[in-house]
Every structure is written in C-alpha cells, then in structure tokens.
C-alpha cells in the first residue's frame, strides 16, 4: 500500500497520453496566454489592498516587499519552465508532482490547487460585488441589505470580531461567479478573447 501512494507515472506514459485523442488542444497563442496571465494577476483588490497596506502598516517598505515578491515569482516561473521542458504535457503542478514525487503528493497538490482557486475566486467575486454596490449607490439605486452580503457572519473591523449579518446571499457575487463559470464552460478561446477585451 505505501508503494502505491508514492507510485510515479513514467514520462513515457505521460507522453503516450499526450498523443491520445482525449488530450487537451493547444488553442492559445502568445496574446491569449499573456492576456490570461494579466487577468490572473490583476484581481479586484490589487488597487485597493496596496494603498491600504501602505497607509495602515507598511509605509514605504511596501515597495521592498513587492521587490522580494517579484524575485520569488521569477524563481517560481523558472521552476515551472524547467518542469514544463522536462514533462511537456498538460496538467501543471499536478502532473509534475505525479511524474517526480508520486501519486500521494500529486493528489495533495491537486486538491491544494482547487482550494486555492476557490478561495481566490470567492475573494475577487466579493470585491466585485462591493464595487458594483458602490456604482449602484452612485446612481442612486439602493441595494437590498439581505442580498448584498455574505450569509450568517462577517468580520467587523470596527469591533474586531465576527458579527451576524442577517443577510441571505451576496447576490451580485453569486451572479458574477455564474457568468464567469458559463464563460469558462464555453471554452478557453472565448475566455482568452474576453480577457483581451477587459485588459485593453
């Protein structure tokens, strides 16, 4: 049983699967890939959180933290480039872990990626909902309190603890998640085109 958990998928098997009829098609060119990368980096909070962090805690040292983060990102990109040249198949970190570390680590990394993307999408959808509510307020359209906040509890920074919201659902955030999901189900080319439009 322990040997099964650390069983690795040989490179020859990965390359053989790459030639199969069920493999993912390469449909993105340089513009689409660049657009998807920019879309992934620029989340809804990038313009707000930087100013808040600089104002409240970091001050000028925020620039140093960005420089350190940039260097770390360069090394992460080099690692991905090295793995992609060694294991030239789709699957990202999951496939790389399966080929080098074994099935258990690939399973952990796969679930870790799902959790990471789910939490990231939640934060961005929530931020988008807050921006949308500000636009509605500017236009003089009142928002329904029970439909624009997360249900049950939310952290109140003024009192420093979780408080009951009395809300049912954050409807704008829910709707934007449904819309983006529908776009992703439609296909990666359409998603890339939409990103190009938003980035320009």
What does this structure look like?
Helix 6 packs antiparallel against helix 7 (103-138) and helix 7 (103-138) crosses helix 8 (171-186). By secondary structure, this protein is mainly alpha-helical. It has one domain (31-199). The chain has a two-stranded antiparallel ribbon with strand order 1-2. The protein contains nine helices and two strands, in the order H-H-H-H-H-H-H-E-E-H-H. It is 68% helix and 4% strand.
Task: Set out the fold topology.
Layout: H1 2-5, H2 11-18, H3 30-41, H4 46-58, H5 61-86, H6 92-100, H7 103-138, E1 153-156, E2 161-164, H8 171-186, H9 188-199
Antiparallel strand pairs: 1-2
Strand adjacency order, main sheet: 1-2
Distance between termini? 53 Å
What is the β-strand count? 2
The Rg value, from CA coordinates, equals: 21 Å
Specify the structural class: mainly alpha
Instruction: Indicate the percent of residues in helices.
Output: 55-70%
Please, what is the oligomeric state?
single chain
Main sheet?
2 strands, antiparallel
**Low-confidence segments:** none
- Specify the number of helices: 9
Q: What is the general shape?
A: globular
Q: Proportion of β residues?
A: under 5%
Helix-strand string: HHHHHHHEEHH
């Amino acid at each position: 049983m322990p040997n099964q958990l650390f069983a690795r998928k040989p490179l020859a098997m990965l390359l053989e699967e790459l030639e199969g009829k069920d493999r993912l098609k390469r449909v993105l060119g340089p513009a689409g890939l660049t657009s998807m990368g920019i879309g992934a980096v620029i989340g809804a909070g990038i313009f707000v959180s930087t100013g808040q962090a600089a104002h409240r805690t970091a001050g000028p040292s925020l620039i140093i933290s960005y420089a350190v983060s940039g260097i770390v990102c360069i090394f992460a990109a080099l690692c991905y480039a090295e793995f992609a040249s060694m294991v030239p198949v789709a699957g990202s970190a999951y496939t790389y872990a399966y080929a080098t570390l074994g099935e258990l680590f690939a399973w952990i990394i796969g679930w870790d990626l799902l959790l990471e993307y789910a939490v990231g999408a939640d934060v961005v959808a929530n931020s988008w909902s807050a921006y949308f509510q500000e636009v509605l307020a500017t236009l003089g359209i009142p928002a329904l309190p029970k439909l624009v906040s997360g249900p049950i509890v939310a952290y109140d920074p003024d009192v420093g603890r979780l408080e009951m919201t009395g809300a049912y659902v954050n409807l704008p955030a829910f709707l934007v998640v449904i819309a983006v999901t529908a776009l992703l189900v439609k296909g990666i080319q359409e998603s890339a085109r939409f990103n190009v439009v938003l980035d320009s």
